[in-house]
Specification:
The chain is built from 12 helices and 7 strands. By secondary structure, it is an alpha/beta fold. Binds to RNA polymerase II (RNAPII). It comes from Danaus plexippus plexippus.
């Protein structure tokens, strides 16, 4: 088997930082993890990618083409569609080594995961190539410290889950940047209770909430009834936090479960000495 994390989430949520952190952490534990950069607009990152989509096509190529005349968003979709048209290139770049463990560092355009089909087609191809995949949906914890924003982030996570139909882990990034009061408030949201979220929004006495209270309550009921969304906090400066996240994902994709069991050789006991 081969193993992969599809690292997705909004722009600026910390996807590339997460990938470089996991690579360094794995190296410290004598484990090899490689990264595949799927962001054609990436400028720099702290890891050396095993495969880089920019060697096939760069966002600027699509935007500067006089016939295409794409903007940033359209150009990004075009680049990913170009990748799908050149899957032989990707397969050759990835090679064919058992026990590969790859992180796919994806673009930050949320539409790619919520309703467009391009990422779903890529996932289907990777599965045909014998990859076990877990989606790692990242969102900035600084964005999620009030009820309305948390509800929005939760719905985005649900949309990605429905579209990609894969095992899914939601991660709150940049926990090390939160103040003590924000961390305490965020504790209520790690296993989201819609009643707490709605209570916070009522207390804020927002005019928007007063107008759309029934809609907000209905969304909260969807989250509660299906019990699909849970968030894991990540502090990249804490090795234990990184270990917990990695162990959770490894268990989901069953990494290491196919390893051969090492049996210790024991000398056979003398039958005369056995009671």
């Amino acid at each position: 088997m081969r193993y992969a994390q599809l690292v997705v989430g909004p722009a600026g949520s910390g996807k590339s930082t997460y990938c470089s952190t996991i690579v360094k952490h794995a190296a410290d534990t004598k484990r090899i993890v490689e990264v595949v950069n799927l962001d054609p607009a990436a400028e720099h990152f702290d890891y050396e990618p095993l495969v880089d989509i920019r060697e096939l096509i760069h966002l600027e190529d699509a935007m500067e083409d006089e016939e295409l005349k794409f903007g940033p968003n359209g150009g990004l979709v075009f680049c990913l569609e170009t990748l799908l048209e050149n899957l032989d290139w990707l397969e050759e770049q990835l090679g064919d080594v058992d026990e590969d463990y790859l992180l796919f560092d994806c673009p930050g355009q949320i539409e790619l995961y919520t309703h467009l089909t391009v990422m779903r087609k890529l996932v289907d191809t990777l599965q045909k190539w014998n990859f076990r995949i877990c989606v790692v949906f990242m969102i900035d914890s600084q964005f999620m410290v009030d009820g309305a924003k948390f509800l929005s982030g939760t719905m985005a996570a649900l949309s990605v889950m429905v579209n990609l139909e894969l095992p899914h882990v939601n991660i709150l990034t940049k926990m090390d940047l939160l103040s003590k009061s924000a961390r305490k408030q965020l504790d209520n949201y790690l296993d989201p209770d819609p009643h707490i979220l709605l209570a916070d929004m009522r207390n804020a006495k927002s005019k928007w909430h007063e107008k759309y209270a029934k809609l907000t309550e209905s969304i909260g009921e969807v989250i509660e009834n299906f019990s699909l969304v849970r968030f894991y906090p990540l502090n990249i400066k804490n090795d234990e936090s990184i270990d917990d996240i990695l162990l959770t994902i490894d268990n989901i994709i069953q990494y290491g479960e196919d390893a051969d069991v090492k049996i210790r050789d024991f000398d056979e006991a003398d039958p005369d000495e056995v009671d």
